[in-house]
Write the structure tokens for this entry.
Amino acid sequence: MAEKLIFHVDVNSAFLSWEAVERLKHPEQFPEITVDLRTIASAVGGDRSKRRGIILAKSVPAKKYGVKTGEPITDALKKCPQLVLVPARHEVYRRYSEAFLSILERYSDVIEQCSIDECFIDMTGTEKLFGAPVEAATRIKDEIYRELGFTVNVGISTNKLLAKMASDFRKPNLVHTLFPYEIKSKMWGLPVGELFLVGRSTQSTLHTLGIHTIGELANADVDMLRASLKKQGEVIWKFANGQGVSVVEAEPADVKSYGNATTIAFDVTDEATAGMVLMSLAETVGRRLRKDDARAEVVSVNIKYNDLSKASHQCELLHATNVTDEIYQAAARLFEELWDGRPVRLLGIQTSHVSRAGDGRQMTLFDDADYEKREKLDRAMDRIRERFGTDSVKRASFLLQDQIDHAVGRGKHFD
């Protein structure tokens, strides 16, 4: 069997790049700015009056002034008073993301889209079609620029972790490899904070242990890491040694996953509040599953911290479900295992491995919950909400507070 060949393709400063390209295509619509946004100190920012009043993407010239993605617009303007700010236009960015994906589909039918601006591609066995790995990656990169007008970085390796690490090497518009034999020379000398899943809090803990580089982490005692960082200690130790998933999980068009995420209007710093957000997300995800007579076997939780670093964790359920409480309980356990105590800006629940109703549920001697009754109750609540409005039925825990919407996805305090 051929060794896996994985590409990670990441758009450079996606929102800023897409905004610049769109404005260059239609200069008559933007007479106030006639230059390429990428060549001046510029940034895409949200509404100053809301939590979205942050820098979403910045140009290279803006970066030289110290402007950072995720910081408040007011702080960015203090660093760079002449910063050109343009509002975000997500409908435009979705269109460019779709065009970006359509080019990748020319090279492989196994593509996993991680976000609006990055994808993994399984390129195993394609050398005879597109050439050696670096040649194929360069071809993809150049084709995207020639046809769409923006640049990407491409990371190449044998698993997704190393491919992603490679794509984060020097930018923009470059191709990098990080094969297992290159880990020591290319990755181990990097600061430990550059390793995937190592945020500021984890980095601080590692520094107290005398670990400052990825190489030092890779050679550290894994039991010591577990003692200080629990399960995450073992996970990042494996990452430092280049151990990652090599399966690109492309979903066929006729298989759905169901999920929801929300940017919270304030920093979440305690498990109780996070639990309420997760319950609200589970309500909407469960309702969508039930509407399609579907059940999911896998639940995952996504976290974005207030420094914009991300983390995710998933688990497989004993039985496929569309019961809100089951989805919530799984998500709450995952959050407890994943959260490192830092303030949380975004939470998301995603379900996958979906099966259709009628597949049945195998009960066990130790399964004392009446899931059939729970599902019937959930469906009854769905019908009431459909007829009388989403707010017609609420869980009691949401009645005495107004910060968190009981059914995320309709607006209120969420983006």
